Amino acid sequence: MAKIIGAVTTSHIPAIANAMANGLEETPYWKPFFDGYPPVRDWLNEKQPDVIILFYNDHGLEFFIDKKPTFALGVADEYHNADEGWGIPTIPPVTGESELSWHIANKVVDEGFDLTICQEMRVDHGLTVPLNLMWPGHKYGHVKVIPVCINCEQHPMPQPKRSYALGQAIGRAVESYPEDLKVVVFGTGGLSHQLDGERAGFINREFDLKCMDQLVSEPEELTKYSNLDLIEIAGAQGVELNMWIGMRGCLTGKVTELHRNYHGPISNTGAGLLLLEHEHLD
User: Fold this and answer.
1) Is 193 a catalytic residue?
2) Is residue 65 pLDDT above 80, yes or no?
3) Residue among 12, 103, 193, 278 flagged as catalytic
């Protein structure tokens, strides 16, 4: 049986890719951010997961404002990243896991989620930056990735309670898969940030730290927020918390925090990192 052995939350700020491409990790601006990642990398290298289920949001590369699915699931064997204008070198493709992806698609649709199922799908920094943070030098080709894309750009967007329910359905689907696979779930994006308007640069550190605590011990408290609540409390782009909430819904057993880091601002964002261990309850 496939088992979810843990989860990771991380920022997916596009400037991170630029910093890594230019070797800026040890500069004063970036060092407190990058210093948080070695323990997570060590854990992943020790556990050697077979599959990463990665919750992210597309920023207009594959899904522009004229066509914006609420939830999209990739079922391809491979995913390519297209140039987003940051001037970074072309990066290797991401390896997919089509059999488990299709299993999840069938199970989740049967539970009432109307997914957009993508047999071809370009992926942006929302997916590739987290992978490169965990396996620097784009050395992520050995692990298979299932993209789960949540609309966090254009209203109407799914509410936190619906994103959590999606995660729960995906978790049940993974647990019903007969092949022995080790799965880790990534929740990416955020935390609090606003990139435009009168509140550009807004960060709510107190709220971010509270969210990180609740994500571990009482995740259903986070589902009580509406997206409008998140916009008011955490900035216009604070709705990216939905990816963290979706990830947490996948974890149906005992959750133990192994590591955390928080630093802000990084590119006008509160950047949080959590490593969670997941034990199944028999």
Assistant:
1) yes
2) yes
3) 193
